[in-house]
Amino acid sequence: MKLEQATKIRIAKNALLSLLLYALPIVLMFATFYITGQRPWEKKQQHKEQNTIKNKPVNTQPQSND
């Protein structure tokens, strides 16, 4: 069974359109980060480091070596 030329073209167009729609949000996200200069992954890391320093338990009772 042979495909018609018009069917092949339509399948190729639909495949390319699907890939474009799939990649568009990712491309827009990185474009937004580039334009605005935001880097949320760095803020999260910085916030995490501050929490570990703040929440570090302080041992106020001396430990005995029995």
TrEMBL record:
Basic and acidic residues: compositionally biased ranges: 41-51
Superkingdom, taxonomy of origin: Bacteria
Biased composition regions of type Polar residues, renumbered to the chain: 52-66
UniProt keyword list: Membrane, Transmembrane, Transmembrane helix
Transmembrane segments: 15-35
Disordered: annotated segments: 41-66
Name of this chain's protein: Uncharacterized protein
Organism: Mucilaginibacter ginsenosidivorax
Lineage: Bacteria, Pseudomonadati, Bacteroidota, Sphingobacteriia, Sphingobacteriales
